[in-house]
Amino acid sequence: MSFPADVAPAYAPAGQALVSVSTHGDTGLSEAALAGRLHEELIAWFGPSARQWRHLRSYRIAHALPAYPAGQPVQQPLRLAEGLYRCGDWAAYPSLNAALATGRQVAEAIIAG
Ligand SMILES: Cc1cc2nc3c(=O)[nH]c(=O)nc-3n(C[C@H](O)[C@H](O)[C@H](O)COP(=O)(O)OP(=O)(O)OC[C@H]3O[C@@H](n4cnc5c(N)ncnc54)[C@H](O)[C@@H]3O)c2cc1C
After folding, report:
1. Whole-model pTM?
2. CB count, 10 Å around CB of 103?
3. Distance of CA 94 from the midpoint of ligand 1 (Å)
4. Which residue's C-alpha comes closest to atom 3 of ligand 1?
5. Cβ neighbours of residue 58 under 8 Å, at least 6 residues apart?
6. Three-state DSSP state, 80
């Protein structure tokens, strides 16, 4: 989860905050049921004041992240051929860290020649 208005105040009216929550996997729940379940979890995290938080909107983004099934290697080969490399989260695991780490490895391989 993140609080986008903390870095971009125009994302929320003055004195209010915008909370963004990401979850993954298809739960089969309706939008309202999923929002309700997440709200209960947020109340457990942040205390009773979170009961006042209002659900504004949900977005279902199909294929938002690369599949990462159990047993998949931690990292795919990055060098495909001489002078041909690839990087990104899908080459390792679905996170910013994997995107940055594989990008750095490719950059270092190119520099090393
Ligand atoms: C809702 C959501 C929440 C997330 N939250 C977190 C989080 O809290 N922490 C975390 O670590 N990770 C999070 N992630 C995952 C993280 O955002 C990704 O793993 C990361 O951004 C992947 O970076 P990338 O550079 O590999 O790929 P991308 O960011 O997907 O970049 C790939 C780029 O290539 C472009 N592209 C695609 N095809 C072509 C083409 N044919 N020609 C030219 N350009 C093309 C795309 O437009 C895109 O700009 C989240 C992802 C989502 C969707």
Report:
1. 0.77
2. 16
3. 9
4. 22
5. 31, 34, 35
6. strand
Residues linked to residue 25 through DSSP beta bridges, in sequence order = none
Ligand 1 contact, 64 CB (< 6 A): yes
Average pLDDT over residues 88-100: 94
**What three-state secondary structure class fits 66?**
coil
Please give the C-alpha separations between residue 72 and each of 31, 39, 83, 91, 93, in angstroms, as whole numbers. Answer: 31, 33, 26, 11, 9
pLDDT digits (tens, 9 = 90+) for 51-89: 999 999 999 998 888 888 889 888 999 999 999 999 999
Give yes or no for residue 2 CB within 6 A of ligand 1: no
